[in-house]
Design a protein that fits this description.
This protein is an alpha+beta fold. Helices cover 57% and strands 19% of the residues. Strands 3-4-9-6-8-7 form a six-stranded mixed barrel. The chain has a two-stranded antiparallel ribbon with strand order 2-10.
Amino acid sequence: MRLELFIGFRYLMAKSRRHNLVSLMSMLSIGGVCLGVMVPVVVMSVLIGFQNEMRSKILGVKSHISVAAPGSQGIERYEKLMEEIRAYPGVVSVNPMIEADGLVQFYNGYQPVVIRAVTPDLFTNDREFASVFKVTNGLADVTRKNYLLVGDVLAYNHLVDVSNRVTVLLARGSLTPNVEMAQFRAMVTGIFRTGHSDFDRNIVFTSLRTLQDILDLPDEVTRLEIKLKNPMKADDLATLLLQRYGSRYSVYSWTELNATLFQALQNERAMIWIILIFILLVAIFNVMGSQIMLVLEKQKEIGILKTLGMKPSHIARIFMFEGLITTIVGAILGAILGLLASIYIKEVLAFIEFFINAGVHLWALLLHLLGQGGGAPVSEFKFFDPRIYYLDKIPADISVARAAILVASAIVLSVLAGLFPSLAASRLRPLEVIRYE
């Protein structure tokens, strides 16, 4: 072990009463770096996991490319168009669909919904859709007219069960004050769940024949839903389809249809990274502060070492190594704790929620005993509400590489921050330091 590293380690682990404050500052610095790394690891794991989960849900329940007829027109001879599109490389499935805005009348009121008329092939040919579309009650039966599939959130909100009958209203054409409304009675044959709460609340499925008859679109559909083997190539294929069919149809890729959402997610990720880097910088400046205190505490020892012939560069290395040891220990510990917290994020948040809710209930009870509470029920605190975040679970993207990058960043920042106290220590003059000793 090199002499500078040995002395730096001894300074860090000093246990004498005279050095208690320095040792305490060193331990606090390790704790600060630990938190400065752990928090970004957990936050980025949850943030990226949330974004990935949202993307997979969107790509699962929606198409990669949509080919739609302009306005309220239908696509005639759509079977031939489907065969032509299937011939393109990378196309996994092409499904016909009629989509219309409407209202569903339940026992306890109306709910605006998007009505999707599909064929049974959607549930068998589209494996990506089938992987997220789970029937929790009843059957995914759209083989007959006036059969309806509703999401579990919609069913729960309106007390709907399988075999119940509801009234569906939809507009014939564009929504204008004079639009003609059509309606039909439908029987709920199944309740589904995708995990995307917005989808489970606002989408219902029926048979293709049902809306073809209601909207007077015999043997026509309003759009074709295309799924690809690689969703990232959707823009390339959409360009080819637009060149070939652009004069008759509109062609959209999933990146175009969700451009605003995904751009907002990218901006959010960039801003979170900047904030977390500043958190890490605060921890590194804490290490820098402890190094400055150590230099002030060790002026006598520095003078003695210089008198014995130690070079200024060696003095600087002692304090650089002390700061590095502090940062490396704290960063590695923070990365390990951050990865463990990310793996068990559900349990960690449940644990924190328990104590917060227990404290809130105790405070409410205390106010009630003192006669200052109104007796109103106390709402439960939740970190993750599916009604807000559109997902039914807390996702986390565990990445050791991302944690390693944060550890490396902390070490680099520590080296930069340690230059000032280390150089200050190396420039101390022995005679001035030990003159009054």
